[in-house]
Amino acid sequence: MLFNSYIFILFFIIIFLIYNIKFPWKIKKIILLIGSYIFYAAWIPSFTLILIFSTLVDWLVAKRIFSCKSTLKRRIYLCVSLTSNLGLLFYFKYSQFAVDSYIELNRMFGIEISPMQLGIILPIGISFYTFQTLSYTFDIYLKRMEPTKSILDFALFVSFFPQLVAGPIVRANNFLIQCISARIITFQKIGWGVTLFIYGLFLKSAIADGIFAPLAEQLYSSHVSPLPIAAWTGTISFAGQIFCDFAGYSTCAIGLAMILGFELPDNFARPYGALGFSDFWRRWHISLSTWLRDYLYIPLGGSRKGKFLTYRNLLITMVLGGLWHGAAWNFLIWGLLHGLLLMIERLSIFLFKGFTFWKSIIGKSIIWIMTFSGICFTWVFFRADDFTEAYGICLAMIGLPVANAKLSFSLANLGLPMATMLILVLFHIGFRNKSLEELGSKIHWSIRGCILAMMLISIFLIRSKSRAFIYFQF
User: Fold this and answer.
1) Range of the domain at 305
2) pTM above 0.85?
3) pLDDT-based confidence at residue 423 (cuts at 50, 70, 90)
4) Whether residue 325 lies in the annotated active site
């Protein structure tokens, strides 16, 4: 049930109308929970049982961790949560990758093993809700919060349908407090929520699918070696596609939650206006990057134990962050590259900390160019089907010769995607420290209405085939 489908719009209207009947707050939460399970079951109904299992395990384990005085028992219960959640995630997401890697490793030593297809289907959203439930268990274990007494509230926290399948990854202390008393729904919240939902759909359907995707797919699906300009423009187009696709989903989720009276955290903050790679990760997929920081990087030691261990911790965090996105060597390399870029950035700051040039307009422009170019370069491994394809595109991007390089794009094909990307980048740079709420509040309601109407028209006029959100596969 995709946000950009008529059946979802109908589903949401029905849930909203029932939810707004004058029921007690507990009944309203039950309505949202049932709606969330129906929403999730629309893909493969049996996978709802996994969602419920994960919910029950972490709710019960968290209560036991909190009530136990013995450090050993607390650790045992924490291991129960880790084993059950990460065990399910590994089985569904990484089993095939592990088998394929084992076969390939044997092949390197001259041992031939027939390929094995396990046929395991990945439950949609499992990476997101696994991290969400684990953060709750970690917070209880670290005594940052007390466990909720309400299984209803916790189940709604895990399965809240606007953000269930692709985030933002919500923290329990931010969501559960909203479940204590009835949410106040105002016309202002509904209006802004609808605005965000339409804007998110516009980013996804009109911009990501309608403008950026065709050029990116020509590069990454043609299986023809590209010329340098084609490699760069196709990859830049994918950079625009993945931002508009994922930010579009997150914006839709935030808007839908707001219509229901809930607040979700922002997940993007103009990432292509970033000045440096650490700045990029403060702006891109914020809920994941802060999760990795709080529950992996800092527990590993963060930057408290010297430069060598800091670099090690960065690499481990980013490699695991890459593997979180997908069970493939390409994602591991993508994460590794980001880890290396963060290391180089830290080293550069240390070596050139006395230089004021980097604070000038020219210096900041150079930093932006290096950041944006580096980010686009890493996107190659995120998007390519395999390492061979990624390697060939990377060679073309750095100007090295590629065998049988033929793929090029006409100016007619490049015009709209590159012009749109230029506007997107300028918007990110110009408003890098402004939220959508701040920008929207400065626009008169009549003008905002006209803009939304044009967005809706664009969604319907730019006829692209219906695509699922990219991050659904994670």
Assistant:
1) 189-473
2) yes
3) very high
4) yes
